[in-house]
Design a protein that fits this description.
835 residues, alpha+beta, ten-stranded mixed beta sheet, seven-stranded antiparallel beta sheet, 19 helices, 28 strands, 44% helix, 19% strand, flat, binds adenosine-5'-triphosphate
């Protein structure tokens, strides 16, 4: 039997089985076993435990018991009784109950007619109840009980989080409860998380519980708050969820454990003892009712009550109130006195403040009086000045008036006479006119001459222009010749460039250090190609094709990959992948943000630019996106995601049948596709990275170019791979699904490491098939492709071990030589079989 339940034994009675009701709740109890075997009526007896509640809700009023006249012969059912009562006593109780109920019944029957109607109603109700009980009971419970056999029922009380207490029965694991309308219902599964079963100790034994608050460490959540307590300042509060002791009494009439009123509870021995304990510690507390109420609040923990009162009212409660002083007879008057003292003290304080304010006002008053005196002096002085000025003004007005009176008279207007024409002057004018005419003629002949000269010069110029056009034509021929020379040169340069890349090795390894705000760094960048790691005082150097420091920008990082991207347009398979510990910046390097994109977007942009530049070659670009999650391939662009994908090998090529490929033309096409793919990815928050990639992301861009002039078709693939981060489970504290993912990630990265190690040693067997990741990347890692690997590292000292292992991984890759990359160029008619 579970600790939180009580055993109820249901015994098959001697006489025929009919449902007999004593009280609504009991109806349930009786109906329940009867439904086990409808032909039986049952009696219940309670095992020794006393403090067992059976009421559906403590707040509910007990309904009056009713007994059918026709049921008088039926064996009355015994209610749950407190322990220690004998069967005889119980029988006597039942008889009494039955008698009382008869009395009540007689009183309630006003007439024969109403009695008949009531009986009919009750019969209907009873039938309905019987039907529902039969329906809700689990078939397993409705087993047939042999005569005289005992049916063992576990009785339990379930306290729902909404505050309602339900009575439950457990029979061989089938649990039912009594609902608000006193009906039996199957116990809902979801309730197991919405409340708890109350143990006998909790409910009735009155065991003292130690205050949970003194034992529990709390953490910040919505139960945490703070309040200000005088003398203690602002203190933290926490709403603890604790089990509650409730003092109830057994009501034999209703057959329900009811809540004991406060004034009765004070007389319960258990409560009395605790009240006494509080009073002996706090002699200043004298009101027992108040202490009982406080005990209720504190789950009957006297220590907690003491601590509450000391906190709220101070140590004054440690002293007993002066004997004989009736004003301290109860705590309210004592508290009122304290309050009055506090008010007087406050008033005194206010008085002192007001006195100070009056002093200040007096001072201010005398200062203002002085000010007023000074200002009235000033006003007087100004009045004098004003009078003087008015006198001056008067004088000035007089002067103006006298001057106006003595103004000289205005002289009369002068008349203008017309000048007479001088004949001498007229002669002079006609002479000048003649002279002007002569010079005009001369000027005309000079202009004519100049025009002739200009015409001659124009003719000469025309001849010169003709010669120039001829020279220009010759120059254009020369330029054309130079252009063709340049083209040949460019082709030669490209082939030299590819040869150079081949010489440099088809795997290029870059090291990128993540930006960090941590004070100490375990990395030192000595030059563009060397990084030193400091671990416990010892230094280790690593060489890479390029080392990017914390301050390197996305543009700088991308610049390193530019040469291989150009090769992709020329028909090479190119792969760029990022490897590193979780949170070391792989996704930042590959994907970046919208405002500051990483290698993925920049390389695609560059590809589009190069394709657009080549006028004579038309390109088709197709993009696909997949993730490798827990060693299985997921198509990120599929309209029906979740379909399992597999890898197919044909000769040297590896393909994924059924993988969605979308043709793209512009950058925005590509961005839209990538956004769709990104949304379908498995990303989760881990302790090391808020947005940790839980899968390897592989974006493949197939670039097919057909040259209109040569008729050749090239097909290159740009594979962009953002690997999931290696992680130490002890550090990331991964659990559940994260743990499974972490294990899969680490396993596939180990397989990648094994492939590189085998390549480094030129092993005969390269274990590409050890994981889906290496299997898929086989064409990128087996000589046909050009590969760039970013090893992303964290400079934080706490990540030194992981950083060292990543650098060692990068250094292994650097020693791998993939051999000569092959260009995928075929004549146009054969291009369908190429790859
Ligand atoms: N160079 C950098 N500059 C600024 N922020 C960076 C840089 N590198 C990484 N970060 C930031 O560090 C965080 C972790 O980076 P990121 O998600 O790229 O790591 P990851 O290696 O892809 O991790 P995982 O393997 O868990 O997915 C991100 O918030 C990212 O923006």
């Amino acid at each position: 039997m579970p600790a939180n339940s009580r055993k109820v034994t249901v015994t098959k009675p001697l006489c025929g089985g009919q449902v007999c009701r004593v009280a609504p709740v009991l109806t349930c109890l009786v109906t329940f076993p009867t439904s086990l075997s409808p032909s039986l009526s049952l009696s219940l007896s309670l095992f020794a435990d006393v403090g067992m509640g059976s009421g559906a809700s403590v707040s509910e009023e007990p309904r009056p018991e009713r007994l059918e006249a026709g049921e008088a012969e039926a064996e009355p059912v015994r209610p749950f009784t407190p322990a220690g009562r004998s069967d005889d006593t119980l029988q006597a109780d039942e008889e009494a109950v039955k008698r009382d109920s008869h009395v009540m019944e007689v009183q309630s029957l006003k007439s024969e007619e109403s009695d008949r109607r009531r009986r009919e109603e009750e019969e209907e109700e009873e039938e309905e109840e019987e039907r529902i009980t039969q329906t809700v009971m689990n078939p397993a419970v409705t087993e047939t009980v042999a005569e005289g056999e005992e049916v063992s029922l576990d009785f339990e009380s379930f306290l729902h989080n909404n505050g309602t207490l339900y009575s439950c029965f457990n029979h061989h694991g089938n649990r039912v409860y009594v609902d608000e309308s006193q009906k039996l219902q199957p116990f809902p599964k979801e309730w197991y998380n919405q409340g708890r079963f109350i143990t006998a100790n909790n409910e009735g034994s009155g065991q003292l519980q130690t205050p949970a608050s003194s034992q529990l460490a709390v953490r910040e959540d919505d139960r945490t708050s703070s309040i200000y307590i005088q003398g203690k300042g602002t203190v933290m509060t926490y709403m603890f969820e604790e089990r509650v002791n409730v003092c109830r009494f057994w009501d034999p009439q209703s057959g329900v454990w009811l809540l004991l009123p406060l004034q009765w509870e004070m007389n319960v021995e258990f409560v009395k003892a605790r009240v006494q304990r509080v009073m002996s510690t706090l002699p200043g507390l004298v009101d027992q009712k108040e202490i009982t109420a406080a005990l209720r609040q504190c789950n009957y923990d006297s220590e907690e009550v003491i601590s509450v009162y000391l906190t709220m009212f101070g140590e004054i409660l440690l002293q007993a109130p002066p004997s004989g002083d009736h004003t301290y007879a109860d705590l309210n008057s004592f508290r009122a006195l304290l309050e009055r003292d506090r008010v007087i003290e406050d008033l005194k304080q206010k008085l002192r403040t007001k006195e100070k304010e009056v002093d200040t006002l007096f001072q201010r008053n005398s200062y203002l009086a002085r000010e007023v005196r000074y200002l009235s002096d000033v006003v007087q002085h100004l009045n004098q000045k004003l009078a003087e000025l008015e006198a001056d003004q008067q004088e000035a007005r007089e002067k103006i008036r006298s001057l106006l009176n003595h103004r000289p008279p205005v002289p009369p207007a002068r008349t203008i006479t017309k000048p007479s024409v001088d004949p001498g002057q007229l002669r002079q004018v006609s002479f000048l006119t003649r002279e002007l005419n002569v010079s005009n003629k001369q000027l005309r002949s000079t202009v004519g001459q100049a025009m002739t000269d200009m015409k001659n010069q124009l003719e000469e110029l025309k001849g010169a222009v003709g010669k120039l056009a001829q020279v220009e034509q010759e120059a254009a021929g020369e330029v054309e010749e130079l252009r063709s020379l340049y083209r040949r040169e460019a082709v030669e340069r490209k082939s030299l460039y590819n040869k150079l890349l081949e010489l440099q090795g088809n795997i290029r390894v870059f090291c990128r250090c993540r930006r960090s705000s941590a004070s100490g760094s375990c990395l030192e960048k000595t030059d563009d190609q060397e990084v030193v790691i400091v671990q416990k005082g010892s230094k280790k150097k690593f060489q890479f094709d390029k080392v990017y420091s914390q301050s390197s920008t996305q543009e700088e990082v991308f610049a390193g990959t530019l040469p291989v991207i150009t090769s992709c347009v020329d028909g090479y398979n190119v792969c760029i992948l990022a490897y590193g510990q979780t949170g070391s910046g792989k996704t930042y390097t590959m994907m970046g943000s919208k405002e500051n994109p990483g290698v993925n977007i920049r390389s695609i942009r560059e590809l589009l630019r190069i394709c657009a530049e080549k006028e004579k070659v038309s390109y088709t670009l197709k993009i696909s996106m997949l993730e490798i999650y827990n060693d299985s391939l997921n198509d990120l662009l599929s309209k029906s995601p979740g379909a399992a994908l597999d890898i197919r090998v044909q000769g040297k090529s590896v393909s994924v049948p059924g993988l969605t490929q979308i043709q793209v033309k512009t950058e925005s096409d590509i961005l839209n596709v990538m956004e769709t793919g990104e949304k379908n990815r498995k990303i989760a928050s881990t302790k090391m990275n808020i947005q940790s990639s839980r899968s390897h992301l592989v974006v493949a861009l197939e670039v097919e170019g057909s040259d209109e002039v040569s008729g050749l078709t090239s097909r290159g693939t740009l594979t962009l791979c953002d690997l999931a981060g290696s992680e130490r489970i002890s550090k990331t504290e991964a659990e559940g699904q994260r743990l499974v993912e972490a294990a899969a990630i680490n396993k596939s990265l180990t397989a990648l490491g094994q492939v590189f190690s085998a390549l480094k040693c030129n092993a005969l067997h390269i274990p590409f098939r050890n994981s889906k990741l290496t299997h898929l990347l086989q064409p990128c890692l087996s000589g046909d492709a050009k590969c760039c690997v970013f090893v992303n590292v964290s400079p934080d000292e706490k990540d030194t071990v992981e950083t060292l292992s990543t650098l060692q991984f990068g250094s292994t890759i650097r020693q791998v030589s993939l051999g000569k990359a092959t260009q995928n160029i075929v004549p146009a008619k054969n291009n369908k079989t190429a790859k």
